[in-house]
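2024-03-11 09:14:02 INFO queue: dequeued item N-acetyl-D-glucosamine kinase, len=304
2024-03-11 09:14:02 INFO validating residues
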Amino acid sequence: MNECVLAADLGGTKIRTAAFMAGEAHFVSDRPTDLSAGRDGVMAALRAAIADCREQASTNGWAPVAVGVSCAGVIDPQQGLVVDATAAIPGWKGTRVAELLEQELGLPVAVENDVKAALLGELCRSPVYREGTTVMLALGTGLGGAIAIDGEILSGASQVAGHFGRTRLPSPWQSGKTLALEDLVSGTGLANIANHLAGANSFDNGRDVLSALRRGEAPGRAACERFCDFLLLALENIYWSLNPDRVLIGGGLVAAREDWWHLLEQKQAAAGLPLLLEPAGLGNDAGIYGAAALAHTHANTGVV
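2024-03-11 09:14:37 INFO prediction written
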């Protein structure tokens, strides 16, 4: 029987799974993520998604030997433990993801932060990204990030290196207050900006704002302009603090980059920022490719 690994990417809106054979993804499948269900509900959905993928692989005559999981939060990969997390998934902090899945599946499980896994996927697919310093930003429901130096993911002393979304900056709306960068630079951040400019809670998420932009509505245009201002500010800080060779930008908002990427390029040119920006090549599949790489390493060496 041919051996394969299973990969799962737990995102803010969906769980994507796949079986990997010879580095290629098969049986790619998505199912919705109900974050409001909290830790137990999310873990149940994650187990079910992986079990379905395992069944498909087994039906095809493949034998899964390990599982890789990409998920939100500050992750201790040696323990497969969520060390810290935002309130997006109630009760997520402290979850022993690897242990719980191994008990259910009977397979070794490797777990990593979602953006670190996504960057690992990009490194595996594009050798040039393994040269020098590569930074990744993931513009999704929140803002994630990761750093790689000469092909190795930088974790930091407390596993928080690259968590740019958690950095603080002065609030543009309230004097004397601060907020997290991801409150401005993310899908949620785009909606926050639009609602502030409109003076009402008219937008539920970034998709709503982009739809308004496509319809030629002024609030959509103004919000995207301000969003790109804040994104450029984050990129300038990354340039001056890390001086990377390149920055990859991924996440759900990049799938709609035709609506706003040109605005970012215009602002970058006006600011004279000499930073190479590229859309992440694997798109929404980066997480599962990185998770598969983790699973392969874990299966072959026992090390995450």
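2024-03-11 09:14:37 INFO annotate: DSSP finds eight helices and 14 strands in the chain.
2024-03-11 09:14:38 INFO item closed
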